[in-house]
Description:
mainly alpha
Amino acid sequence: MSHNYYLYTLPTDDQRFQWIPWDHTFAFGGDGGIGQALPLDLATVTEQWPLIRFLMDDAVYFARYRELVAEAATTYSSFAERHFQSAHDLIAEFVVGANGEIAQHTLLSSPEAFEAAHVALRSRPAERAAQAKTFANE
Length: 138
């Protein structure tokens, strides 16, 4: 989704933008009410997204896209899992307080819900990588 990120300018990095995604569960799709990812072949993308449709219909570009998906499948999964664990560790004390209660600014119902969401999120990159490997080898 086009609104599931923030852009932040790092003052110490020559004012370059950092992409800060949120709502990862929808970004990766899946079952259990956490969104549905597009199929990797993008066959369901219609003229509503004209640039994507145009590029996917180009045989040369589509072949390159398939190569990049294969590359991402071998490198991204472990990176994403480490990133999600790091983010979890960073925010955990602010989501679940010292007394074991969920902070008021979350939509979570319990500390167990927070951990369950984290486990579900960490499993998605490996699942998507398996789908990507299958797609790349078709």
